[in-house]
Amino acid sequence: MTQARDEELEAALDAALEGCALPRHIGVIVDGNRRWAREVGVSTAEGHREGARRIADLLDWCDELSIPLVTVWMLSTDNLSRPPEELEALYGIIADAVERCAGAGYTVRIVGRSELLPARVHARLAAILDAARPTRDLHVNLAIGYGGRQEIVDAVQAILREGAASGLDADALVDAVSIDAVSQRLDTHDQADPDLIIRTSGEQRMSGFLLWQSVHSEYWFCEANWPAFARADLLRALADYCARERRFGG
């Protein structure tokens, strides 16, 4: 497709979104960096670098559309079992991406267990966020060392620890575990649940992404590998979302 046709398609999609109630929170599973790298004949590390650059593009597109919150899954707990040489390159790419997002003026939050990363990487991420001075409206969650099951377990354990510290007996501890109590102890406890979750690379599964928060989310699956994800793909996802009748479990 030529650049002129790309621009024509984007203009048509932009027009189709006029008057639509866009999502207030979009979650994105950025899948396919390694597959993209194999297809174009570059290293896995370059695939991850290109994927990180595409995250910056995504955030700019969402900011332009006045979408207030985006959660991007950058590194799962399962990913931590990848070969050490791949992880070593990935840690630097992730830290650079966090620095780029914070430097762009977005309000950045890391969700997940970033303390599972090497101490020097964890310290760099903390220093980046400490030095950040947000200037733009978009809030960004970067899920690093994140697993949905672990997040729920951590929340329940926090409830039980707090209850035990207060001297609650066994029955009272059980009663303390409620939907509201768990929600209040998630990494996203003060944020709206995602309205739309996008996954790239043709995979149609959630893999544990925002398990608790996505109970009423709409899903959109894209064939493009993440580094090839284009603004038109985002607009297609939004147009499809706007055409749906949300039932919220009803």
TrEMBL record:
Cofactor or coenzyme needed: Mg(2+)
PROSITE patterns: UPP_SYNTHASE
Molecular function via GO: ditrans,polycis-polyprenyl diphosphate synthase [(2E,6E)-farnesyl diphosphate specific] activity; magnesium ion binding; Z-farnesyl diphosphate synthase activity
Residues at which substrate binds: G32, N33, R34, R35, W36, H48, S76, T77, D78, R82, R199, R205, M206, S207
Biological process, per Gene Ontology: polyprenol biosynthetic process
Cofactor: how and how many bound: Binds 2 magnesium ions per subunit.
HAMAP family in UniProt: ISPT
Protein name, as recorded: Isoprenyl transferase
Species this protein is from: Brachybacterium nesterenkovii
